[in-house]
Amino acid sequence: MFEKVKVDENEYVRVPRDELFRVVKDVFMAMNVPEEDAEIVAENLVMADLRGVESHGVQRLKRYVDGIKAGGVKINPNIKVVKESPVYAVLDGDEALGQVVAYRAMRMAIEKAKKNGIGIVGVKNSNHYGIAGYYAYKMAKEGLVGMSLTTSRPLVAPTGAMEKFVGTNPIALGAPVEGEEPFLLDMATSVVPSGKIEVYRRKDKPVPEGWGISTENGEIITDPHVILSPKGTILPLGGLGELHGGHKGYGLGVLVDILSGVLMGATWSRHVGGTSDKHSDVGHFFMAIDPGAFGDAEEFKKNMKKMKEELHNAKKHPNFERIWVHGEKGHLTAQTRLEIGIPIYRKVFNEINEIAKEVGVEPLKE
Ligand code: NDP
Measuring CA to CA, how many Å separate 127 from each of 98, 281, 338? Predict the structure, then answer.
């Protein structure tokens, strides 16, 4: 039994996967979100917790509920295809729940790739879509190489700056592997996503040095409350300055802004709004590639397997138990949690139950 994050069982409550899915889905339905859409959002949030990505799981439920209440998110949006060809499309999300319009765009990318070898579908006028890996994983499960990118609220300082400017803009790539779960790289382009700092804030614990700086004097700070306030900012992947490649993480964040923001007619970096904001104009980018269009699809999967084996067998560093390939820890964690339940931080557990009671939904049981 493996879990990528060790949790203190006194601080967490284990909830069966289906029960967590049930309560999240029911909360959205109680807020008049159509059933099919409520299922997509619930699946996305629960998948994060299942795979050990606590930062983007059900701890975010309140944010979505508040977004709907504030009118920042439309529950019955008029999603429109504004441009389309056999290999690309652009959707206007009409301020839908991010997951709902993103799911539709991802399905279109899959269908185009299956018919024409490649499908690129962008979205403008959307909201937060949860974990980028949810979409890349689904594309890979269909035998395609899938890429998923999204803009997000400005939280990261460009190299040389000391203000929140670029989003934590994630990149996810999924690819099928013969006889195994897909390869799945799913990462923020900042040192950490804000959700990971929110986890520390909830626990009132300092974050490791190197995640954030002060916006007043540029010094490294570790107080999660300050980093998430206007007095602090997150650093790009690679950290402060250029020594450990901070400029490259910053560049990857801008890459995401270009493909999912500027290219799709959505806004970018400092202009992207949060879930409760009207017209947050989040942009997404989905690309599905049929390996069969470029070579032999079965050969591709075989070679993916071979490549993974070679990575596992690289000369091992003495301080590490093993060499992992992206997606493996998440998958093993999911297997464990399907068996023994998903750990939910007690404060989050109580918060979910408060929301459930408020909207008239059966709360979670301990
Ligand atoms: P992590 O640092 O937790 O993981 C990054 C990637 O590395 C994952 O693919 C993970 O796969 C893999 N991995 C972990 N350890 C190893 C290892 N030792 N060797 C090889 N691969 C490894 O991700 P982040 O904290 O950066 O991001 C968390 C989530 O936040 C993502 O799902 C992202 O999409 C989401 N996010 C969403 C945003 C939004 O606005 N919607 C903004 C920013 C982030 P594995 O499954 O195996 O652990």
Answer: 4, 7, 29
Whether 308 and 325 have beta carbons less than 8 Å apart is answered as: yes
Q: Are 239 and 208 in contact (CB under 8 A)?
A: no
For the CA of 326, the closest atom of ligand 1 is 21
Return phi, psi of residue 76, to 5°: -125, 65
134 CB less than 6 Å from ligand 1? no
pLDDT computed for residue 348 by the predictor:
96
Say whether pTM exceeds 0.85. yes
CATH match of 12-314+318-359 with 3.30.1370.60: yes
pLDDT along the chain (366 residues), means of 10: 93 98 98 98 98 96 97 97 98 98 98 98 98 98 99 98 98 98 98 95 96 98 98 98 98 98 98 95 98 98 98 98 97 98 97 98 96
Q: Is 48 in a helix, a strand, or coil? A: helix
Query: Do 272 and 153 form a contact (C-beta atoms < 8 A)?
Result: yes
d(Cα 155, Cα 294) in Å, to the nearest integer?
38
Task: Give the CB-side neighbour count of residue 324, counting CA atoms within 13 A.
Answer: 12
Q: Which amino acid is at 203?
A: K
Distance CA 155, CA 230 (A): 9
Helix (H, G, I), strand (E, B) or coil at 240: coil
Q: Which atom of ligand 1 is nearest to the CA of 185?
A: 9
Domain ranges of the chain: 12-314+318-359
Q: Please, which residues have CB within 8 angstroms of residue 189's CB and are 6 or more apart in sequence?
A: 156, 168, 169, 170, 171, 236, 237, 249, 252, 253, 255, 256
The amino acid at 366? E
CA 355 – ligand 1 centroid, Å: 28
Q: From CA 119, how far away is CA 310, in angstroms rounded?
A: 30
For residue 79, give the amino acid letter: I
Angle at 182 (CA atoms; ends 179, 45), nearest 5 degrees: 135
* Ligand 1 contact via 128 beta carbon (within 6 Å): yes
**Closest of 226, 223, 225, 245 to residue 236, by C-alpha:** 245
Q: Is 153 in the pocket of ligand 1 (CB under 6 A)?
A: no
